[in-house]
């Protein structure tokens, strides 16, 4: 993030590998991370993974497969390592719902830790009526603190720093907060998504990374110049908000 002066992650939710690769190549210079939903790609094959890895090296970004694991340890270990997608082989980080309890972390870390991978827990969600609130969110953060070797942060709507900690604790968390539901032009979509601006997310809510999908590629996945321009716009907005937060804290 510091190297590229970017706290922008782009979520590339398209169904054709040609569009997928073209968008990533266009936004690559502006992002610290590319988020994928590899199971929506209709013409997926192993060569796509190789091309994604090549782009990750070319543009210096981290790959995050947004798999949202949510099952028992044994099942998630298999889903993570095996099947068509073999996510653990190529995705630097992935994420999980804390709903099954700590065993989901043990299951995923049995595969991911030896490969040097990291995990994000979904402690909150961006959608209207989300159930991940209150004590659920607190327990998610406690689960993360108990597994710092593998959990590197959260998908959440605000910083999780200090959440669920006893008062007067001097311990500091060092987790990342990556935040979806970010848009500069829309307030939401027709299916419950809710958008806030990079400023609200980074400066007011203390998050670290903005995750932007349709705000960047939404008009037409073929309009590469427009996509590049939007990526630059979001990168600048995200980084400016971050710098303002850091200077306000100094
Ligand atoms: O709470 C969440 C968690 C995630 S990971 N809300 C979300 O929207 N996401 C993901 O972020 C979602 O699966 C999608 O890939 C992306 C948001 O896309 P956008 O097009 O609405 O920006």
From TrEMBL:
EC id: 4.1.1.23
Catalytic activity: orotidine 5'-phosphate + H(+) = UMP + CO2
InterPro entries recorded: Aldolase_TIM, OMPdecase, OMPdecase_AS, OMPdeCOase_dom, RibuloseP-bd_barrel
Pathways per UniProt: Pyrimidine metabolism; UMP biosynthesis via de novo pathway; UMP from orotate: step 2/2
Catalytic residues (positions): 66, 68, 71
One GO MF term attached to the UniProt entry: orotidine-5'-phosphate decarboxylase activity
Chain coiled-coil ranges: none
Domain Orotidine 5'-phosphate decarboxylase: 7-229
Pfam families (alphabetical): OMPdecase
Keywords from the named record: Decarboxylase, Lyase, Pyrimidine biosynthesis
Residue numbers binding substrate: 13, 35, 126, 193, 213-214
SUPFAM superfamilies per record: Ribulose-phoshate binding barrel (SSF51366)
Domain of life: Eukaryota
Signal sequence coordinates: none
One annotated GO biological process: 'de novo' UMP biosynthetic process
Family recorded in the similarity comment: Belongs to the OMP decarboxylase family.
Protein name: Orotidine 5'-phosphate decarboxylase
Protein's organism: Lentinula edodes (Shiitake mushroom)
